[in-house]
Automatic annotation (TrEMBL):
SMART domains: WGR (SM00773). This is WGR domain-containing protein. InterPro entries: WGR_dom_sf, WGR_domain, YehF/YfeS-like_WGR. Residues 1-80 form the WGR domain. CDD domains: WGR_MMR_like. It comes from Methylomonas methanica (strain DSM 25384 / MC09). It comes from the Bacteria. PROSITE patterns: WGR. SUPFAM superfamilies: WGR domain-like.
Length: 80
């Protein structure tokens, strides 16, 4: 997982949210998991978490992805 984009829609509650994650290398042999979330069509909130290895960042991202899927988020494939 280097990039993941997910959305959750509930028309009844007027809920249209997105969540995306990136795993990227840092400058000092570290790795970050960059998370952005918010309402679809609006700028989101961005947070970074730092990890010593790429594998740790990917594991953290996969755990978050699993939690979001349980809440109703669905992965949206990248458009090429």
């Amino acid at each position: 997982m280097n990039h993941l984009y997910m959305e959750r829609h509930d028309d009844k509650d007027n809920m249209h949210r997105f969540y995306q994650m990136f795993v990227t290398p840092g400058l000092f042999d570290d790795w970050s998991l960059i998370k952005e979330w918010g309402r679809v069509g609006s700028p989101g909130t961005v947070r970074k978490e730092w990890f010593d290895t790429q594998e740790e960042a990917i594991v953290a991202g996969n755990k978050l992805c699993t939690a979001k899927c349980k809440k109703g988020y669905q992965s949206i494939p990248a458009v090429r």
